[in-house]
Specification:
11 strands, five-stranded antiparallel sheet, four-stranded antiparallel sheet, Jelly Rolls, 2 helices, 47% strand, 179 residues
Amino acid sequence: MAWTVPLTAVANAALTYPQWNASVRDNLLETAPAKASSAGSIFAADGTNSIAQRTVSSDTVDSSEATTSTSYTDLATAGPVVSTITTGPLALLMYAAHMSNGGTSTCFVGWEISGATSTSASDTTAISLQGAASNQDIRMSNVRRLTGLTPGAQTVTLKYRVTSNTGTYKNRHIIVMGL
């Protein structure tokens, strides 16, 4: 329902209940507090004079797992993954992982989207760590504003690859905020 045009108050004129409902009650039902149906949600504009409730969703995989794949892949425990989060054309993505590589090659953590939007993991948007002989274990993170999404249900999954050798990943986190 769209906002209704408010009534003009006139001295000593009584409002009928249909006037009150159309002018006051129905407009109050269009506010964010009236539309809220779950704790922790946010609201985003989804059109002119219109808002939509959106959620923030997260996932974590703590186990240490490795890959030698030179193309983006899942680890033994896939993800972390945020399944079926509703977005408009925008979302906010935050992701992080501890990474190490026994050689001098590079470890990458990228992300893919499936559902209403389809995007493959890419080095241009991934976090990366150039390895060293000391087999360093460093936590890397990134925050990205995703644009050009097809509004609807999305699934966002972290993916992994190396340029060579073995990349090890642990304490992997993802947070997605639908906008």
